Amino acid sequence: MTQAAFFVLAALVDEPRHGYGILQEVDALSEGDVQLRVGTLYGVLDRLTADGLIALDREEVHQGRLRRYYRILDAGEAALSAEAARMASSARTVSERLAAPRAPGRPGLAGGTA
């Protein structure tokens, strides 16, 4: 799962959102680390819809423009949960490896010996 898809699904967990609302929520959830462009967002939304992870919730006209609201489906929540667990496991593995003692003379991160 891409980082963009991960955060779009996460943005839809608590309520349906329209495109601009999703962009704002992704920015907030990622603390600014993930900044989606509109074209990227709609590509992700199309893919998640085709994969059966999200669905169109409703359409509303706001100031003469159509807003499409998307909601996460049970399959989307399951995929998001599985990806979060996989990421947490990977982070634990790497953290444990970084905390493990190194063999003498083995190069460190900067290329010197530890």
Characterization of this structure:
There is one protein chain. The chain has 114 residues and is an alpha+beta fold. It has a single domain (3-96), classed as Orthogonal Bundle (Arc Repressor Mutant, subunit A), CATH 1.10.10. Helices cover 52% and strands 17% of the residues. The chain has 4 helices and 3 strands. It has a 3-stranded antiparallel beta sheet with strand order 1-3-2. A hairpin with a 2-residue loop joins strand 2 and strand 3. Helix 1 (3-11) packs across helix 2 (19-29). The radius of gyration is 19 Å and the shape is elongated. The model has no long low-confidence stretch (mean pLDDT 93).
Write the layout of secondary structure elements.
Blueprint: H1 3-11, E1 17-18, H2 19-29, H3 38-50, E2 54-62, E3 65-72, H4 74-99
Antiparallel strand pairs: 1-3, 2-3
Helix pairs in contact: 1-2
How would you sum up the major sheet?
Answer: 3 strands, antiparallel
Overall tally of structural domains: 1
What is the CATH top level name?
Mainly Alpha
Enter the CATH topology name.
Answer: Arc Repressor Mutant, subunit A
Number of helices: 4
Strand arrangement across the biggest beta sheet: 1-3-2
The span between the termini is: 36 Å
Cα Rg: 19 Å
Mind telling me which CATH architecture this is? Orthogonal Bundle
Structural class: alpha+beta
Low-confidence stretches: none
CATH superfamily: Winged helix-like DNA-binding domain superfamily/Winged helix DNA-binding domain
Helix content: 40-55%
The shape, in one word, is: elongated
User: How many strands appear in the DSSP assignment?
Assistant: 3
Name the helix and strand elements from N-terminus to C-terminus, one letter apiece. Answer: HEHHEEH
